[in-house]
Amino acid sequence: MLDLAYLRENLEEARQRLSHRGFVLDVETFRRLDSERKNLIHEGERLKQLRNTSSEEIARLIKEKVDVTEKRNEMKAVGQRIKEIDETLGTLEEEIYRFASIIPNLPDTDVPIGLTEDQNVEVRRFGQPPAFDFEPKAHWDLCPALGILDLERATKITGSRFPLLAGAGARLERALINFMLDVHTKEHGYSEVVPPFMANSRSLFGTSNLPKFEEDLFKVKDTDYYLIPTAEVPVTNIYRDDILEDDRLPVKFTACTPCFRSEAGSYGKDVRGVFRQHQFNKVELVKFTRPEDSPLELESLVKDAEEVLKRLRLPYRVVIHATGDAGFAAAKSYDIEVWLPGQNAYREISSCSNFRDFQARRANIRYRPSGGGKVRLVHTLNGSGLAVGRTWIAIVENYQQKDGTVVIPDVLRPYLNGMTVIKPQKVI
Predict the structure, then answer these.
(1) Which helix (DSSP H) or strand (DSSP E) does residue 350 occupy?
(2) Which residue in the list 171, 306, 390, 397 is annotated as catalytic?
(3) 333 annotated active-site
(4) Those residues with Cβ within 8 angstroms of residue 77's Cβ, 6 or more apart along the chain or in another chain
(5) Which of 57, 138, 159, 421 has the greatest number of CB atoms lying within 10 Å of its CB?
(6) Is 8 a catalytic residue?
(7) Residue 117: active-site member
């Protein structure tokens, strides 16, 4: 959430910067609401001062044996008006808060300006797409014959866009999770947590999923619980309403959780295979940092996610989001896109973002500077380290062989009891 003080003092600048995101800031509505607020505050302060002065005068008149009935009646009317102002002011401030809660974050000044993903800018690449001496298959054609993916039975069990992995496919998923968590905890300095897989509305508001993206969430009927769309939600809210000590920063957490998304805005997109699902596993990376450290912490976060792909020897590229393609809460975002031979394209496997104090203001997450002074809002960052299902797809497509088998990347073999190749199997 943007700082309301910033909006009041820099409204035109905010309007211009937000226009780069394709967001039209309703300047007139904000000015009207804020003007009403200021007028009510001034009137309330004037009346409270009048009440204080009159109370002293009434006390003096009583000592002088003067009838103060009229004065007291006047002050009752003043008191009633003060009460009305306070109630109206509370309602108005809630309206301003709701108004501000749907304004996206301001893009960093070094983010490329553009409204679509076509204007994202490639930063770097790693590896070369494999050269096959046969026509490579997409995972939805390759995996059923191996007996490791059964989409028909998954649809029967639940519906479309749910996975059913079997045998070596299920083991590969588990191996990837353990491998990713080991890299991030043992080498990158993240502490592992296992958070709840449901979160309340206040937690989702803190990470900016509510109110704007409610249609993307699965809600548990007659409760305030939602299935989490990503571990970012519960992990960020670990410190909601807390004050961290300066010497604890940066705090770095990793978590693997199932993620649940309605994919409300993706009708007809990625309908084949398991690239875009209602349920999937993801290893998440979350950081809490000092404001001055967050830009560099974003760069290291991206490299932490990249390292997983490097060790799996999967070709990928890194792109920086243009202003209009970044997420609602992000000030700056990078996507890591892995090469998928079956689609002959790079596709997103991780998104890494610096939210600056946008989430921290909504969730009231602060820290106490070591040099003293006022507590300050932390900066929050998060990224996928990585989306497990999409990494699974990338492995089976990039490591497929002419005979339909799939070679296991070297770094995963210890997690699979030395298995080197996925061969056709009958599990289900």
Answers:
(1) strand 345-356
(2) 390
(3) no
(4) none
(5) 138
(6) no
(7) no
Question: How far apart (Å, rounded) are the C-alpha atoms in residues 143 and 293?
Answer: 44
Spatial separation of the C-alpha atoms in residues 32 and 414, rounded to whole Å? 64
Measured CA to CA, the distance from residue 373 to residue 292 in angstroms comes to 16
pLDDT at 424 exceeding the cut of 90: yes
Write down the catalytic residue from 348, 368, 376, 413.
348
Question: How many angstroms separate the CA atoms of 235 and 254, rounded?
Answer: 8
- Model pLDDT for residues 280-330, shown as the tens digit of each residue: 999 999 999 999 999 999 999 999 999 999 999 999 999 999 999 999 999
390 counts as catalytic: yes
- The catalytic position among 51, 276, 317, 413 is 276
Contacting residues for 150 by C-beta, under 8 A, at least 6 apart:
144, 164, 166, 428
| Catalytic residue flag (residue 348) | yes
User: Which of 208, 333, 351, 384 does the annotation list as catalytic?
Assistant: 351
| Residue 42 neighbours by CB distance under 10 Å | 10
Can you say how many angstroms the Cα of residue 154 is from the centroid of all Cα atoms in its chain? 28
> Which structure tokens are listed for 211?
């109110």
- State pLDDT tens for residues 323-367: 999 999 999 999 999 999 999 999 999 999 999 999 999 999 999
Identify which of 35-44, 58-67, 256-265 has the greatest average pLDDT: 35-44
Residues 233 and 269: their CA atoms lie apart, in Å, by 25
Number of alpha helices (DSSP H) and beta strands (DSSP E) in the chain = 12, 16
**Distance between the two ends of the chain, CA-based, in angstroms?**
49
Distances from the Cα of 190 to the Cαs of 126, 154, 195, 288, 301, in angstroms? 24, 34, 15, 11, 11
At 410, list the tokens. 């070297």
Q: Which amino acid is present at 340? A: L
Instruction: Taking residues 88-93, report their average pLDDT.
Output: 96
pLDDT digits over 160-192, tens only? 999 999 999 999 999 999 999 999 999 999 999
Run of H or E including 251: strand 251-260
Give the number of other CB atoms < 10 A from CB of residue 210: 20
- DSSP 3-state percent helix, strand, coil across the chain (nearest 5): 45, 20, 35
Tokens representing residue 258 in the block: 């199932």
- 295: tokens are 């830009």
